[in-house]
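Check these lines:
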Amino acid sequence: MGGRVLSVASECVPLVKTGGLADVVGALPSALKPTGWDMRVLLPAYRALRARAANWPVVWEEPDLWGGSGRVLAGEEAGVPLLLLDAPHLYDREGGPYSGPQGEHPDNAIRFAALSWVGSRIAREGLEGWKPDVLHAHDWQAGLAPAYLAYHGNGGCKSVITIHNIAFQGWAPGHMLGTLRLPGHAFHADALEYYGGISSLKAALVTADWITTVSPSYAAEIMREEFGMGLQGVIANRAQVVSGILNGVDTESWSPQVEDPPFGPKALAGKAACRAKLCEEFGLEVPGPLAIVVSRLTDQKGIDLLPQVVPDFVVGGGGLIVLGSGEPHLEGAMRDLAARFPGRVAVQIGYDEKLSHRLFAGADAVLVPSRFEPCGLTQMYGLRYGTLPVVSMVGGLADTVIGANPATLAAGAATGVTFHPVDALAFGRALDQLLEIHRQPKLWAKLRANAMAHPVGWETSAAAYASLYERLVA
């Protein structure tokens, strides 16, 4: 069937990225092409993007955009069809998408209301020769777009909101209702009101035609108090229009075939060489499995559990390299581990894309002990590289890794090690299991082969999105 989709988001690879949201927004247009769906991405023209789009044609003008005018420029970057909302009074600022040198921008509610407003108008009225069948909003930054369609007319366009992380909800004080061009009659608990204020994410959840999350398990989890972050009741009330669609990864850039040296499922000598180079780079000698952590260093990611479990893992023969940054006390705890176990544990604070590729290429296992994980890409990179994931049984981690247990081992289906609940006892036992599997070369080889054969690309996910769009339009 096919059709047209306007994707509205605050980030998009390769232009601007702070997290996995950008990867999804950047990957979907190309992934959807074979299904017949034409997706264009509406993104704010942040300072760094304005110069790149200087010669792009203007396809939309918006005279009244909260204190100034705006215009939409059309172009393409790395195969992604883009619409950039150029409104200098809102987006031409020093810093990242959400904050500058002085911290978070105080007018973020208005900055992203403007993005949503223009997205809803394009969805309702269409550009010259191109009118969307579906508006696909991502996270709170685009959350008001479905609400504007619901309250100002949708022009026949359906709407979808995807929750990438429900912890971020886009809150504004209640007195801004009129300023945000939202109707007073909808300011009640069953619609826009949220603890006396306005949440742009809640606005989307109560107005969008469909709600998706980035994994089926996360879709179920966020209807529960421990994961719903205050919005669990809203989502449970709309359970009949909630579904989870897993993210995929870019299998061209994340491929063992492009590493140095390259390797594949049937040519693993290259992986052994990558491991040797990695150990030399970090000055490690690890007789057992070499594990990595590539993560934001936060409690959400379970990083606080590492000091409790790594010592026994090292005694058992394991080693660890940590790459990431985050909460200062956790950065310090990682440095303390490296100081305590020289030659077995190494830490690099910060993020380095090239190093992360070397880590996945050379490591034996990747540790992802998250307390909640909407989807997660790290474990998928691990599968792709034959770097066995050791993951907590939450969200997308539970949906992508088949844990080694008597049933999965008997069926020859296991792709990693899983644990639950998310505490040091369960995590430590998972690392003991990893050590035990590593002592059995045939079993280790089987799990690694299973992992590398597991599909992690966008094909299945794109087909699921296309099917959803077709149901909505039909």
